[in-house]
Specification:
The protein is an alpha+beta fold. The strands form six sheets. Strands 1, 6, 7, 8, 9 and 12 form a six-stranded mixed β-sheet that branches. It has a six-stranded antiparallel β-sheet with strand order 4-3-14-13-10-11, with helices on one face.
């Protein structure tokens, strides 16, 4: 029977929840509901998932629903569609598949169907139904216990509750006195995530467990089960076993769910033993336990398997919630930044000034400002390295410093020297800023200081002059020396300042807008809006990779 492709909304009537795509780009992550089919991916702005990279084709790929499964289909893209590193034309998706579209390791998608854990629990129950049962009553109790644990694990979403359910089920099954769950932290070290004793009381201290057995199980990525340590000479000699009189010790690695992992009801398969370990389930007791049957061992392994899957799910949910809070805070920060950086254009009789900033993200590191004093009309344009919150924070600091010193009528070279000392003495890492400050006096004298910024454009009688004078960006060298340059302007002359987001704006082929196109537009007496329109026409829908700011000053005399 062939696949039947469904077009339109995807029915979620049995689950109440849609599959999701976890889209990761750099340090950012967001979840996208896969709630319709086909779901389109590409560089064009009308796609369901837009990836703004020249290596992504305009119409790159589709994700379609076929009889309850999802399939990715490449649309003859130039740089290919990849699933788990393998280039594909068409591929049925499994849980945690990693999809990449043209661009590798920079932006990718994780396919995450919410019902994967439930299906695997059902599969396991089907497998163990044919296993020989030696003691019917006991094993039926175990099956009931497993069924209840699996049901609880598949209906709760909070990580702490999942771990408590896991421990309660394990302690009831093994008749052990206490149990612990350890999870790997970001630095790779184990941390105690939950502890529980047979009375249902929380345990916060893991000092009296056998850490050597825990480490051995994780290092070998294999299960450790012994019901009477006194019968093993190797175990009986371990310090922790002797010191704490431990007789029953069980340690089972929690393995990260794998795409192609297969379950073997009797023993761990090769795919399991090679799977990445995300933590461990550990239980022990001071009393020797009756032997755990193969069925019990399988059920215990299955609970650990289900728990590992749901721990991963819970982590995704927590990451989604953290991302949502981050977006809320980012929106607040963007609002504050917009108000702080709102520019009131001074009205002077000898010049007209206009400026516009177009951010590629909610907040950014570009800004411009204008200040009118007795020394003349001064405009500032700056671009802090990097993007996001850190760049925006430094941009706000930089703007405040320059504004206050302009009001105090400090010389331009002293202003940038002070900013440079601040940046270098505060040890703010690899951050620096390109800055240009230009001042026009009523008599037409232009003084400017350029600190690593895009050279200004002087438009005189439709001819372009690009002064080459410049200095180092601020924040690179503490002992940098800054100098200014001067020009005499005539009525009708224009000064155009831009950030590199304008000259480095890319089209679908990866070409830059560059200086030649900028000069051609400016030479035609192009206004600020003409420059933005030219950039938009050149990019033809390709999203900006950097903030774009343009400032134009016309000297009227």
């Amino acid at each position: 029977m062939g696949f039947q492709t469904i077009t339109g909304p995807i029915s979620n009537a049995g689950s109440g929840i849609f599959p999701i795509l976890v889209f990761v780009e750099g340090n950012e992550q967001r979840n996208i509901n896969l709630d319709h089919s086909p779901f389109s991916v590409g560089r064009k702005i009308d796609k369901d998932l837009v990836i703004a990279d020249p290596r992504v084709s305009r119409d790159h790929a589709l994700i379609v629903s076929e009889n309850g499964q999802f399939c990715v289909i490449d649309q003859s893209s130039k740089h290919g569609t990849f699933v788990n590193g393998e280039r594909v034309q068409r591929k049925t998706l499994e849980r945690n598949d990693r999809l990449e579209f043209g661009v590798r390791d920079v932006a990718y998608v994780i396919f995450h169907p919410h019902n994967a854990s439930t299906n695997s629990a059902r599969d396991f129950l089907s497998q163990i139904s044919g296993i020989h049962i030696s003691t019917e009553t006991t094993d039926l109790e175990k099956l009931t216990l497993f069924l209840e644990a699996a049901r609880k694990l598949n209906t709760i979403g909070v990580l702490d509750e999942i771990l408590v359910t896991l421990l309660d089920a394990t302690l009831n099954l093994t008749r052990a006195e206490r149990g612990y769950v350890f999870l790997k932290a970001e630095d790779g070290n184990l941390r105690l995530a939950a502890g529980r004793n047979s009375k249902g009381e929380p345990l916060l201290d893991d000092k009296t467990i056998s850490h050597s057995i825990l480490e051995d199980a994780l290092k070998s990525n294999s299960e450790f089960v012994t019901t009477d340590t006194s019968r093993s000479l190797d175990l009986a000699g371990r310090q922790s076993i002797v010191a704490y009189d431990l007789r029953t010790v069980i340690c089972i690695p929690l393995r990260k769910p794998q795409i192609q992992a297969t379950r073997d009801a009797q023993s761990a398969s090769p795919s399991e033993t090679s799977a990445e370990v995300m933590g461990a389930l550990y239980v022990d007791s001071r009393f020797a336990s009756r032997d755990i049957s193969s069925v019990s061992n399988d059920i215990l392994r299955a609970i650990a398997h289900e728990a590992a899957s749901l721990v991963e799910n819970a982590r995704l949910v927590q990451a989604e919630e953290a991302a949502r809070r981050y977006q809320q805070e980012l929106a607040i920060a963007a609002s504050i930044q917009q108000r702080l950086m709102a520019v009131t254009i001074p009205e002077v009789p000898f010049a007209r000034l206009s400026g516009r900033n177009l951010s590629c993200k909610e907040i950014g590191g570009d800004f411009f400002d204008a200040v009118n004093t007795e020394d003349g009309l001064t405009v500032v344009l700056a671009d802090v390295s990097g993007k996001g919150v850190s760049a925006a924070l430094l941009a706000s600091t930089l703007q405040g410093m320059i504004y206050s010193q302009l009001i105090a009528r400090m010389p331009l070279t002293e202003i940038v020297a002070a900013v440079n000392r601040f940046f270098t003495h505060k040890h703010i890492g690899e951050k620096y800023a390109t800055v240009i400050i230009a001042r026009i006096r009523q008599d037409g004298e232009l003084e400017y200081v350029n600190c690593g910024h895009v050279p200004p454009l002087l438009v005189c009688n439709h001819e372009i002059i690009r002064p080459s004078h410049g200095n180092l960006p601020v924040g690179l060298l503490a002992d940098a020396v800054y100098e200014s340059d001067r020009y005499d302007l005539h009525p009708g002359d224009r000064l155009v300042l831009v950030t590199d987001g304008v000259t480095e704006a890319e089209n679908a082929s990866g070409d830059f807008f560059d200086n030649e196109r900028l000069e051609a537009v400016a030479a035609k007496s192009g206004t600020l809006e003409d420059i933005f329109a030219a950039v938009a026409n050149f990019c033809a829908g390709t999203p900006l990779n950097d903030d774009c700011t343009v400032v134009e000053m016309l000297y009227t005399g």
